[in-house]
Amino acid sequence: MNGLMMQQSLLISSLLTHAERHHGEQLIVSRRVEGDLHRYTFRDMAERARRGANALAGLGVQAGDRVGTVAWNGYRHMELYYSASGSGAVLHTLNPRLHPEQLAWIVGHAEDKVLCFDLTFLPLIEAVAAKLASVKHFVLMTDRAHMPAASKIANLLCYEELLEAASPDYDWPQLDEQSAASLCYTSGTTGNPKGALYSQRSTVLHSFAVALPDALNCSARDVILPVVPMFHVNAWGLPYAACLTGSRLVFPGPALDGKSLHDLFESEGVTVSAGVPTVWQGLLAHMEAHGLSFSTMRRTVIGGSACPPSMMSAFQQRFGVQVLHAWGMTEMSPLGTVCQLKRQHEGLAQAAQEAVQAKQGRPVFGVDMKVVGEDGAELPRDGRSAGELLVRGPWVIQRYFKDEGGDPLVYADGQGWFPTGDVATLDADGFMQITDRSKDVIKSGGEWIGSIDLENIAMAHPAVAMAACIGVAHPKWDERPLLVVVKKPGAELTADALLQFYEGKIAKWWTPDDVVFVEAIPLGATGKMQKNKLREQFARQLSN
Amino acid sequence: MNGLMMQQSLLISSLLTHAERHHGEQLIVSRRVEGDLHRYTFRDMAERARRGANALAGLGVQAGDRVGTVAWNGYRHMELYYSASGSGAVLHTLNPRLHPEQLAWIVGHAEDKVLCFDLTFLPLIEAVAAKLASVKHFVLMTDRAHMPAASKIANLLCYEELLEAASPDYDWPQLDEQSAASLCYTSGTTGNPKGALYSQRSTVLHSFAVALPDALNCSARDVILPVVPMFHVNAWGLPYAACLTGSRLVFPGPALDGKSLHDLFESEGVTVSAGVPTVWQGLLAHMEAHGLSFSTMRRTVIGGSACPPSMMSAFQQRFGVQVLHAWGMTEMSPLGTVCQLKRQHEGLAQAAQEAVQAKQGRPVFGVDMKVVGEDGAELPRDGRSAGELLVRGPWVIQRYFKDEGGDPLVYADGQGWFPTGDVATLDADGFMQITDRSKDVIKSGGEWIGSIDLENIAMAHPAVAMAACIGVAHPKWDERPLLVVVKKPGAELTADALLQFYEGKIAKWWTPDDVVFVEAIPLGATGKMQKNKLREQFARQLSN
After folding, report:
1. Closest to B220 (Cβ–Cβ): which among A2, A217, A342?
2. Are A8 and B201 in contact (CB under 8 A)?
């Protein structure tokens, strides 16, 4: 017997309609690539998204067709989130930091029919346009005044002209909620990138989860500045959650340096932000160098990589901004866990609270997880037993786009689980802590050493700007940890001094065997340290 | 083209599994009908719900069978929420305040196969048991020690014995998310009650909405005491939302008087509560009479009937507890709107904020609404145009159980809308305000007079305990407002003095024509004033 409630699809267009009807006057503020600040309301955005849907239809885009974007965080990108996905097309966000060859490969694999891009990326797209056989229309996301006099791209279209010519009347279609809505490729360090194809349903469910009080806690009283790019797993879902909750949005455009961000936080009264640790380093360094503080910021979400405890302390103790440590993956839409304290932690001293906050947090409802040993058997939820982290849920991937790589799941208890490639512990209170990527784990004398712990200790040293710990081959122990360190500008530090800094903080045999100082640690397109490159570079360091 | 995320049903059992895994140590505290306080954890609850699922199967309950409950808010009732709905049966909560004949009629209409009830209700059920032909098993929700030596009910079963005999091992079935999960009958003032049949999907989606920051704002740091009964639209979804968020639950059992509630708020550190205005009146009167305050309470949700502004001020200004005015219906699972302020209201003075808070609030995402005129055309969202309120959404009713009453929807723009029977305004910021029930609206000289406004003014008078405003026939104006008033104990008040109190507060022609003082206003089974009875009683008041 079925229930008798309305059969209504969970649709991305309903997020927009909700925002337009109940938060029509709410603002979206965007730093444009042209340099100025642009302001308009959700009502304006909704009208332009309807024009955009008509414009896409005019370009021959049909249900299921991919619409690629290469763009910063801004209002035009937001409009495409809704005009493409709302009309039944598939929004495909591309990471402009990828190598042009890889970008072209992904566009081809996705078979993008239309490609929309910011002015910044015109040279990039011009350089690869000839290789983009699937793309029927190139759209520059600017107005007539900023269109180039000439372009290597024939028939380059102007986004604002397309909108102007399109009707503002458009009825969002009543799609099947299982319909594909958006596509993000993982930045695989080995092999070709693979696409995660989100559905209307998975996106709406994920939006509910993102907004919850113990997740990113979004309300109509918040001003949210997503530093995390809209080309990186849909800015962790914030462009959707903001419509669900009526939060004001502030988009930083291309200006992600510490000064630009701090200025925008202050001038727009931002209350919540979200980004990866490397971005926050730039912001904190700028604020410390100039003796600045925050006026309105209440909390920031840090994910993408583990948040170093020293960064957490800086935000919380020096600047009075609560850090929400979070964890997710492209394959998870991305939200998996957020580290919000429980009632029993409220009375603890700050140091004890931060020990809890160093964990990646508790699963939001909808995501289930377990850790398994090398034999696949579930490990106890005791906060100590580390194993591969498996996840499942309605916004977790089932297959990659075009079935690349075959079935990614592992099966247990009659259910499919996605293997995250992370090594983690779970505790009885539901808190998960990543100890390593499984490919980064250091196996020494038959035991595992967690590289993240070793990096966090190094990062707590006042002279260290960035640290990576990698395993290098060792004749007796198989592998031993090597620390690769970038010093802060002007700081003095020796390998011995840094290794002494580990004393008493960790089991003696975990202490790195050596330290090498470098100018920079290579970062991938999403800001993560590329340890595989370090492993290649320092493969023989210890045996020298 | 479909998305490629996991196909996972939204199931009530997954709420329980989430709570057990990630909030296993969280407490559920219950005032028992036996008088004492019972404490256990979500982990304990989950184990007993699994035993309960086995026990129900042992009684022959199959998927879709109805399991009736007549019970207070307590842990055994909570277990049945999950053991019944989680296993694919339909939980059917019955209101013990109904007339026994009506209760028997509803059990028969629902065809309840098992009926579980608290010790309090043994005489009630014994009195009607012979009429309950569908019921194969009667289960008294108590332990062996409290079972009666003899009962008029043959083979009366003991809940605790059933659990003890059942295995704690049970795999929650992977149901279709459209499966029926629970059943609530409306307390229709005319005709027979009709059943709203919720699905697994509608319940889980509603739980997400309930927990949102701008709805009831539930987190793992909250201690929630639902005063609203679990037999009244599933206690507004709190028994589900608490599992989703890991909030502590405190159940008051049958002790709903002011003293019992205040004692429990204080002893258990309650942070959030929810109930109808009539319950809060008792609590506030007790607190004022004894000079009490709240130590931990942060907010209370008031719904079921409009919250009088005087009650809101008392909570907020005298006791420092935020009032969340809310509105919903049995046919809406029930949540429709919650009155959480927006950013632009944050700087307002308290009186100006309370003018906003007097409205029923903004729709939670998922619920769409509009007001229409008598011709069915949509009225502007201007905060002034009042019309019938229509709603739609994935937790809004499509048909009543057994198709009673036929198709309840009205159709516009190709979509079905549920007509709420409420008269309301909507404003540009999304705030809805009920001005009347459409059957209570007073039509005077071709214009509408909102009875709720008139009642709120009367309630603000210090001598008034309760007020109802009804339309009575008038030879010239068709109808004119009559005020029916219960004075506070010992208070002195004349009709003239009360009518003078309206001066300057409202258009002169809205002022009631007369006042009658009564000992009590009849309340329905869910605590709402029964104005239809007053209209019968005072039909000729003005012409006398």
Report:
1. A342
2. no
The closest alpha carbon to A452, from A416, A491, A417, A424, belongs to: A424
Sign of CA dihedral B6, B239, B363, A268: negative
Give the separation between CA B398 and CA A7, rounded to whole angstroms. 8
Residues A467, A458: Cα–Cα separation, whole Å: 6
pLDDT grade, residue A541 (50/70/90)? Answer: low
Q: Exactly one of A69, A186, A420, A425 is catalytic; name it.
A: A186
Is B222–A90 a contact, with Cβ atoms under 8 angstroms apart? no
Contact A193, A186 (CB under 8 A): yes
- Residue of B4, B42, B344 to mutate, testing the A interface (most A Cβ within 10 Å of its Cβ): B4
What residues of B are in contact with residue A218 (Cβ under 8 Å)?
213
Catalytic pick among A17, A41, A266, A448? A448
Is A508 one of the catalytic residues?
Answer: no
Rg of chain B, C-alpha, whole Å: 23
ipTM for this prediction: 0.91
Residue A369 has pLDDT above 60, yes or no: yes
Selected for mutation to probe chain B from A365, A381, A397 (highest B CB count within 10 Å) is A365
Given CB atoms, is B419 within the 8 Å cutoff of chain A? no
Phi, psi for A261 (deg, rounded to 5): -65, -45
**Assigned token pair, B383:** 């905060």
Q: Give the number of other CB atoms < 10 A from CB of residue A69.
A: 27
Q: Does B64 touch chain A (CB under 8 A)?
A: yes
> What pLDDT is attached to residue B529?
85
Among the residue ranges A268-277, A334-343, B66-75, B435-444, the one predicted with the least confidence is: B435-444
Give the residue ranges of DSSP H helices in B9-97.
12-22, 42-58, 75-86
C-alpha A208/C-alpha B214 separation (Å) is 12
* Residues B62, B50: Cα–Cα separation, whole Å: 15
C-alpha to C-alpha distance for A141 and A158, rounded to whole angstroms? 7
Contact yes or no for A261/A283 (Cβ under 8 A): yes
- The single residue listed with the structure tokens 């003005």 is B542
pLDDT digits (tens, 9 = 90+) for B46-101: 999 999 999 999 999 999 999 999 999 999 999 999 999 999 999 999 999 888 99
Strands B223-226 and B248-251: parallel
Q: Say whether residue B135 is in contact with chain A using an 8 A CB cutoff.
A: no
At A280, list the tokens.
């926050």
Cα separation, B496 vs B493, in Å, equals: 8
Count of CB pairs separated by less than 8 Å, A with B:
228
Quick one: A489 exposed, middle or buried, by C-beta within 10 A (0-12, 13-18, 19+)? Answer: exposed
Asked about B479 being catalytic, the answer comes back as no
Q: Looking at the complex, does the CB of residue A179 fall below 8 Å from at least one CB of chain B?
A: yes
At position A339, the amino acid (one-letter code) is: C
The pLDDT mean for chain A works out to 94
Name the DSSP class of B66.
Answer: E
Q: Could B18 and A368 be called an inter-chain contact, meaning their C-beta atoms sit closer than 8 Å?
A: yes
Active site residue A505: no
Q: Which of A4, A184, A202, A299 has the most B C-beta neighbours within 10 Å, making it the best mutation to test the interface with B?
A: A4
B374 dihedral zone (left: phi>0; alpha: psi -120 to 50; beta): alpha
What's phi and psi for A426, nearest 5 deg? -125, 145
What is the DSSP secondary structure assignment for residue A276, as one 8-state letter?
Answer: -
Query: What torsion do the CA atoms of A526, A532, A536, A541 make, to the nearest 10 degrees?
Result: 110
- Token readout for B179 is 């499966």
What is the reported pTM? 0.91
Q: Is B199 on the interface with A (CB under 8 A)?
A: yes
Active-site residue, selected from the candidate residues A342, A402, A439, A443: A443
- Cα angle B497, B503, B508 (rounded to 5 degrees) comes to 120
Residues of A in contact with B245 (CB under 8 A): 212-214, 365
